[in-house]
Amino acid sequence: MCHTPREHQHTEWEDPHGDSTPLLSSTQSKSWRVLLPPIRYVVVILGLLGCMVDYLVRFGLSVAIVSMVVDTGSPNTSLPLPDGACPAALNNTQHDSVSGEGTFDWTVEQQGIILGIFFWGYFITKMTGGRISEMVGPWQTMAVSLGMSGVLSLLCPFAAHLHPMALASVRLLMGLVQGPSFPALYSVLARWAPPDELATMVTIAYSGMSCGSLVAMGTSGWIIEHLGWEWVFYGGGILSLLWTPLWLAFVRNSPKNHPFVTPQEFSLLSLNIHVKPKRHVPWSRLLRCWRFLPCIMAEFASSWVTTLTTTEGPTFLNAQIGMSLDEVGSVLTVGQTLTWFTALIYGRTSDLLTKNGTLSKINTRRLMHTIGMVLVVLGLCGLAWAGCDKWMVAVLLIVVMVGCPSTLCSFTLAPMDIAPNYAGVC
């Protein structure tokens, strides 16, 4: 499987998932084709919105919990601090938990379970989500995943009033249903992206993660202040349920089953995309593929850095460096905005380099990964040496964030390049 180039695979357009729907009449179909842009771009935009909604629903609790719980901070002056710790870290040893002005008197342990249990469910189903989406159908899998996430988000306020472990149970279920969503989107894009547009389409779609974080940071404070913390969950749930029918209406598993694809676009996709899920995965060959194993290590490192900056970055800037909450919000807003723009630049540059023959596909992937990882390493090393200069720390954290999206057009695309039939699994 390692040695089967994408361009040499046999084209098979039979739909294994039975997602074909009755086509519109010729007149209706032609009228829609005039109104719509190329359908592959509609798929990408809906993918971007899906990633954005996914992140809004996923991380809404992280924002809302500050307003949900009462002040449970307790004196903890015995915590040792290293030499040279910033004054802010010394001042913040008086509390060891999230504190707020809400009504729920949850212990530190309960808060930790509620915040973290989502990722246990997410880890379980993301491991198998790619295979699930390939067998059931990635179009259907993503719709069910985000649709159910929206319903569970609407249930979160009720569960919180019922019992903290009831909320934890809802969050666990949310993690389980969200796990297959990103592998499913990956499988959809593998069938809709021509090689000359592959990196651009993937980075645009997955840049929705940055958009989701940006929208959450920009609106959650206002929503909590004017509508109440419950609307952080209601808003994410409603948006998810609004997105689902749009996805079902305008996306299909393959261009063959889409009623609005023009003959020109279908010809482009049928000539350049050769993807059909296989019933059996050659696991032994996959695990022995020397090109695949580095991707696992790169995914681990990338996920670690991204999660670190997303989840621990705000606390680090506030509690350790001494930034105010407004300053932290400004830094992260700038960082997420630049992350979104640079993701698009990485993707478009990759496609131009390969399309123009400037670099081979593999060297383009290497170049993008090298650029991003140099920024990440320089930023992380700089953070260790920056001391307590809060604005220097902020700039270096943004450098790390800007380097991270390069992975969307480096090892992330390797499964599509090497074995698109197993893109979701890989």
From TrEMBL:
Look up the signal peptide feature and give its range: none
**Does the record bear Calcium in its keywords?**
no
GO cellular component annotations of the record = membrane
The protein's superkingdom reads Eukaryota
- List, alphabetically, the InterPro entries matched: MFS, MFS_dom, MFS_Na/Anion_cotransporter, MFS_trans_sf
User: Any one Gene Ontology biological process term?
Assistant: monoatomic anion transport
What ranges does the record give for the region Disordered, renumbered to this chain?
A: 1-24
Where are stretches of biased composition, namely Basic and acidic residues? 1-18
Indicate the principal place this protein occupies in or around the cell. Answer: membrane
UniProt topology in membrane: Multi-pass membrane protein
Question: Where does the record place the Major facilitator superfamily (MFS) profile domain?
Answer: 43-426
Q: Enumerate the UniProt keywords alphabetically.
A: Membrane, Transmembrane, Transmembrane helix
User: Where does the UniProt annotation locate this protein?
Assistant: Membrane
GO MF terms here are: transmembrane transporter activity
Residue ranges annotated as transmembrane are 41-70, 112-129, 141-160, 166-186, 198-219, 231-250, 367-385, 391-414
Pfam families recorded for this chain? MFS_1 (PF07690)
This chain's protein is named Major facilitator superfamily (MFS) profile domain-containing protein
Q: Which organism is it from?
A: Petrolisthes cinctipes (Flat porcelain crab)
Organism classification? Eukaryota, Metazoa, Ecdysozoa, Arthropoda, Crustacea
